[in-house]
What does this fold into?
Amino acid sequence: MTGTGIAPLPALDFKVHPATSSFAESQQAYLAKHPDPRYNHLATGAVVFDMSHSTVPRILLVQRAAADSMPNRWEIPGGGCDNEDESILYAVARELWEEAGLKAKSMLHTVGDPHIFSSRSGKKICRFTFLVEVETNSDDGFAVTLDPKEHQQFVWATEEDVKAKKSGNIELQYTTQELENTIIEAFNAIERQS
It folds into this structure.
């Protein structure tokens, strides 16, 4: 599926649950409070589930653009924290809007372990992933809108799809093994909540 043309960034007002309150501060403040020689930048990922059409949870996956790094691979919406972001959670909401056109309603909790990696430019980054409840934006639930410079299509995948690495006739090759593990952990977290 595709949908393109992200609107300007709206006001990002979302609920912060106690489990995510330690991320309600800027990247700079967090790094000062939690110094770690393994990283000096933060990134975020947003796990979004759609349970409106069935009892089987479906997770939003987006496919990276063919001209981007890790071309044609699948991931969840997310990206780096900017120094201008008022908080790490704001960065989650901003990236979710920029990459999928979805507006965060609540930041529920973190998912999986933090993932530490180096970027192509040599930045040492720690990525935190969050379960995010989003606002319904269409009669069918969620109308995803992609930025074609970053992503070329999306799917709502079941846990079975994720494990089979295939949704319908679409092959799902993930950006990293760590991301795939985090996606599976997200399904486990949803099952524990049920």
About this structure: Helices lie at 27-33, 88-100, 159-164, 177-193. The chain has one domain: 15-193.
